[in-house]
Amino acid sequence: PRPGFLMRLLQKPPPLLRRVALPVLGWCAISLCCALAHAQTPASDLKKLTLAICEDQDEWPPYSWLERKNGQKSDKVVGYAIDVIDTIFARHGIQYKISLIPWSRCLAELRQGQQYQMALNLSWSEERANTYLLSRAYYSTTNNYYYSRKKYPHGLAVNSVADLKQYPVCGILGYNYTTYGFKPGEIDQSAKSFES
Fold first, then answer.
1. Residue 124 — left, alpha, or beta (φ > 0 → left; ψ -120 to 50 → alpha)?
2. pLDDT class of 119 with cuts at 50, 70, 90
3. Is the confidence at residue 83, as pLDDT, over 80?
4. CA-to-CA distance for 191 and 174, rounded, in angstroms?
5. Is the whole model's pTM more than 0.85, yes or no?
6. CA-CA distances (angstroms) from residue 119 to 83, 97, 164?
7. How far apart are CA 44 and CA 153, in angstroms?
8. Of 49, 55, 89, 147, whose CB is crowded by the most CB atoms within 10 A?
């Protein structure tokens, strides 16, 4: 089959994307993510539809968040990731709509390829690379861990990723912790959001 728009985009990114993309540090390479079922859609066909994009409802500033007006959340999603897709899609006349939904649901629905054709701000893992068509990284982050000073007043003895495994570790449902050396299911991911 003829290579689709998204495949061509990944093979030869536009100058703006090349200029703003940060090197992959081997840790948390954040990508645009597309369902494989739509990977071969020609650009001319994409102009006829509106791509449905999902993103985590907890927001991810400065990459994506709901714009505030008078201290109140609006319906407009803004941020660096939005600027990147605006630049790419505008050049090709592609319309899109972003929905902020629970992250686990975003990934599950993207995997099905029905409701959503794309997700924003997805970190790389082997499982995700086998499931989705990932773009080149367009930013990278530095991993951190947080701990209770009350329980550990002298800090934690963490000199390597492997050292984390001696402590109880928790995370958010559906988030990727492979960069910390944890496989899915090895940490408590019962929190459904940053607030819980």
1. beta
2. very high
3. yes
4. 10
5. no
6. 15, 11, 29
7. 60
8. 55
